[in-house]
Amino acid sequence: MPVTDEAIDKIKGMIISGELAPGDRLPKEADLAQHLGLSRSSLREAVKALCLIRVLDVRQGDGTYVTSLEPKLLLDAMTFVVDFHRDDTVLDFLAVRRILEPAATAMAATNMTEEDIAELAKLLEGLEESPTVESLVANDLEFHRRIALGTGNPVLCSLIDSLSGPTTRARIWRGLTQEGAVAKTREQHRAIYDAIAAREPELARSWATVHISGVEQWLRNALGEHGENS
Amino acid sequence: MPVTDEAIDKIKGMIISGELAPGDRLPKEADLAQHLGLSRSSLREAVKALCLIRVLDVRQGDGTYVTSLEPKLLLDAMTFVVDFHRDDTVLDFLAVRRILEPAATAMAATNMTEEDIAELAKLLEGLEESPTVESLVANDLEFHRRIALGTGNPVLCSLIDSLSGPTTRARIWRGLTQEGAVAKTREQHRAIYDAIAAREPELARSWATVHISGVEQWLRNALGEHGENS
DNA sequence: ACACTGCAAACCTCGGATGTTTCCTCTAGA
DNA sequence: TCTAGAGGAAACATCCGAGGTTTGCAGTGT
């Protein structure tokens, strides 16, 4: 195994074992390199890799720190990974969302505070009559994001967030708007909101299922007539 | 933004835009470095980072290649991330599994082939009477893994795989075995299998829910009496 | 008490040199 | 002719050392 990979494992080990706690500062590059028995160059490669997945945070002129290691932060890194997937796996991702989002919406109906719900309402009303594609995407994303937040489970929230990444959703919306399905989406969002506001988890779950399934259905058709794969 | 991060984005862009397809070989370090306008050292840091998340695959003496970018490969990288989470978020992860696994089990009851089911049976029978902790963990992991595979959705499968990472599960089992709950777990596995073999998705879903909830319940108690946090 | 200056620490980037591994070709022998 | 082995070229792995840039902090003057 390359020394760099070894270094990655060792740093990982130091963090997991507790030798390095969240927020701790690592020894300076030169010292840590000597301690791990490799050159600064190689160590930097290891640090950079751990940086990409948000485990480490380097600040020029200051030092290298272990991040908070919160689920949100770490799962956020998954967005980066999801971006790489091609169109032919979009349906698979959507199928996962079809499992997660209804469950999350039901949880949100139970766990959201009144303030959260009020903000959700504001979000729905904040959308103008003929919105641009950008504001539509942003509004849709934020709506589902608030619900995910409302579950009270940061892991679930981050996971949904990643899966609904801007890329995937943007692609979906770009087509959806052309079909004029905006109104229906807005109605369904409203229905989901009403169910949450009424504290009806099962109703909320059902509307969420309807919502996601509609998108899935449309996407399946769009992909079917567009690409001829499989 | 540091030049290395820029390089990461550029390489990512080249892949997403299709300029670099899965399996393609990148230009050699020196050339790519010049093309991107940075030094080899900095480029190597970028490559190493993309390597950690399985987007690139470097082979000494050969070259650097874009991986297949399959969901399994990319989501696998998430296992690395999940390893960093501390005990206080285990319940949150388990809550997500409680959503995903029942749904997956139901899907498996519909989609698994007869061969898959036969192998699942073999797996259950293959466990000796008084297994070691290691074989127990391995068997349990493989059982749920086969079911996840049986959904036919690689994204869902990899996701479940990552969340049920060895670390988390090992910790859970270590305690479970001490309580003598092995028999009950085995019964539930058997019940899940029977439901799948009978092609009863809803029954399979219910048993999976029962199974996961049992683990969750036990874990909640164990954490409650052990740690005094929150 | 506040603001500015200066310095030191730490990371950032670069370029080159040397070691290792892999792949491919060429050759010698069967 | 086919095959096995030797050799070399290509590409990555690792290291080292030299500046450059940013940040945090202490010291200083008002």
Identify the notable features of this structure and list them briefly:
2 domains; DNA binding (chains A, B); Tscrpt_reg_HTH_GntR (chains A, B); transcription regulation (chains A, B); Arc Repressor Mutant, subunit A; DNA-binding (chains A, B); mainly alpha; homodimer; 230 residues
Q: What can you tell me about this protein's structure?
A:
Chains A, B: Residues 1-69 form the HTH gntR-type domain. Chains A, B: This is DNA-binding FadR family transcriptional regulator. Chains A, B: GO terms for molecular function: DNA binding; DNA-binding transcription factor activity. Chains A, B: Keywords: DNA-binding, Transcription, Transcription regulation. 2 copies of one chain form a homodimer. With 230 residues, chain A is mainly alpha-helical. Chain A folds into 2 domains: 3-66, Winged helix-like DNA-binding domain superfamily/Winged helix DNA-binding domain (Arc Repressor Mutant, subunit A), CATH 1.10.10; 72-226, GntR ligand-binding domain-like (Four Helix Bundle (Hemerythrin (Met), subunit A)), CATH 1.20.120.530. Helices cover 72% and strands 3% of the residues of chain A. Chain A contains 11 helices and 2 strands. In chain A, a hairpin with a 3-residue loop joins β1 and β2 (63-66). In chain A, α4 runs parallel beside α8, α7 (133-150) runs antiparallel to α8 and α7 crosses α9 (166-179). The longest helix of chain A has 26 residues, at 201-226. The interface between A and B is large, with 43 and 43 residues. Chain A binds a DNA duplex (30 and 30 nucleotides) through residues 2-4, 28-30, 38-42, 44, 58-64.
